[in-house]
Amino acid sequence: MIKLHDNDQISLSAGTLKFSIHLFYSLCHLYHYVSFHEIPIIKPTEFMFKNYSHLGKEKWEVYAEVVRQIYCEIGGFQKSNKTFDDMLSYISLINGKTVLNC
């Protein structure tokens, strides 16, 4: 997992910009702080399904939520309930043209 350290001048939302604009924006800063966290592969187990069954109805939902919790905790990220369509709408708004899910 790669995490950019908090920086008041650059936002992760800049990643939705066109590459040339994003590159220019990134090069405006002399340096960036980056940290790497080595995370083991998380395999689904019956223990996980029994103890975290409140996170979902099906096994894949439980597994996805457990992995999401672990990554958010280790990476220091906030959980978001935004959907893929929300992300496409945001990218469309930033770029000024409609981006469709193919």
Structural class: mainly alpha
Radius of gyration from the CA trace? 17 Å
Largest sheet: 2 strands, antiparallel
Strand order of the largest sheet: 1-2
Return residue spans where pLDDT drops below 50 for at least 5 consecutive residues.
none
Can you count the beta strands? 2
Sum up the overall morphology in one term.
flat
Strand content: 5-15%
Q: How many independent structural domains? A: 2
How far apart are the termini? 27 Å
| Amount of helix | 40-55%
Taken in chain order, the helices and strands follow as EHEHHH
Structural features, described:
- By secondary structure, this protein is mainly alpha-helical.
- It has 2 domains: 1-38, no CATH class; 41-102, no CATH class.
- Helix content is 43%, strand content 6%.
- The chain is built from 4 helices and 2 strands, in the order βαβααα.
- It has a two-stranded antiparallel sheet with strand order 1-2.
- The radius of gyration is 17 Å and the shape is flat.
- The two termini are 27 Å apart.
